[in-house]
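One such shown below:
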Amino acid sequence: MAKFDSKSFNPQAFGKYIETLPKTKKNELIKGGILKGNSEIREAFGSQTGTAYAILPIYGRIGGDAFNYDGVNDIEAETTSSFERGVVVVGRAMAWLEKDFSEDITGGAEFMDNAAVQVSDYFDNVDQKTILSILKGIFSMTGKENLKFVNGHTYDISAETGELAFVDAVTLNNAVQKAGGDNKNKFSVVIMHSVVATNLENLNLLGYLKQTDQSGIQRDLTLATWNGRIVLIDDDMPVTEKDGYNEYTTYILGEGAFDYEDIGARVPFEMHRDPKTNGGLDTLYARTRKCFAPFGISYTKTKQASLSPTDEELSDGGNWELVNNGLSGDDKEWIDHKAIAIARVISRG
């Protein structure tokens, strides 16, 4: 068994221990039903010798106008379309080097707890950056059909005058109706900057879930709601500086908005001991491979330099398009963008 700063280090046990810790950001998304597993993605990338990019089939829905069944008219059959969605594995890695990990970093506290918490929190932040990069990318798509999603799922009030440029009682309902039509109830979670949340609080529009303790005393929880949707407050949400004001992007996501699979790396965690440099150095290496695939939107890999996309490449609209049947011209069919439970509100607060 390897030693990490004179302490026993079992990489398998370390990895399993990390998985048992609360995921402060990702778990909140999972609770809202935004991330869901996908067996086809798991199977496509399950082998360590497999690919880092895959195109998965999606079966279309039956349709067409019903014929009059009168014993005279023929019944003509129609075929269903099949669509294609590109998905990619995002690989990330990091290493931490310490001269004396136990005392300098954990303050003499228990090694496994402190090391695992720090690594777990670090990759929670990495995952959130990945999701935000993907959201930026899909809202940067161009082309006629793609813009039906971008424009239809964007509710921009930032150019309005006065208080109309700020979120209010009708903003959320208008945004999800514009994006989803009669599917608007699929939207379940709102992720906003604290400035936007504070504005809603000042308008008494943000409610907090309550809990009654064993003594019968009711207390507010930190989890808020807005028009019945769970609200997550996070200052990592995009803020764009304009001439004299800021634009805040609030994301509204629904059940199954993202397919998610932790594909894993062959060696997720390992330790290296250098006894010579600076009298002895310990380095902890960590690697992850994960797939975050927005429903109804395909990753094209058009502008990707290596086998794993960077955050900048994920943010590039040229790497994304609405799911389609892969044909060209008049034979090309696209998914109905209203089936995608992803939307955004752009406001001044």
